[in-house]
Request: fold
Amino acid sequence: QVQLVESGGGLVQAGGFLRLSCAASGRTFNSYAMAWFRQAPGKEREWVASVSWSGISTYYADSVKGRFTISRDNANNMLYLQMHSLKPEDTATYCCAARASHVHRDPDEYPYWGQGTQVTVSS
Reply:
């Protein structure tokens, strides 16, 4: 199994920047595809971005494309989400997730999850 812990959330004004981090431990990290999901109170979980095990292939939801960047540092077992030009609608709890091999957009395909970090964007 893989243990995941997120950090880096906070309160930021619209147009601001945050970088979320996800630290992985417990198993070999290099072979796992990783993803970020978010969920606002009273709303369904939303897929945000995914990255392949190598870090070369990345995928983004249309709502964040061009503003967010997902990346990973396999040598240090870290996953990142750089969020630029933040909007109030980005306000949510952000969770990182991991699965063996290929990336996926369905949260049911990710067996390993962190507890989440809160991002709040004010107008």
Q: What stands out?
A: The two ends are 40 Å apart (CA to CA). The chain has a mean pLDDT of 94.
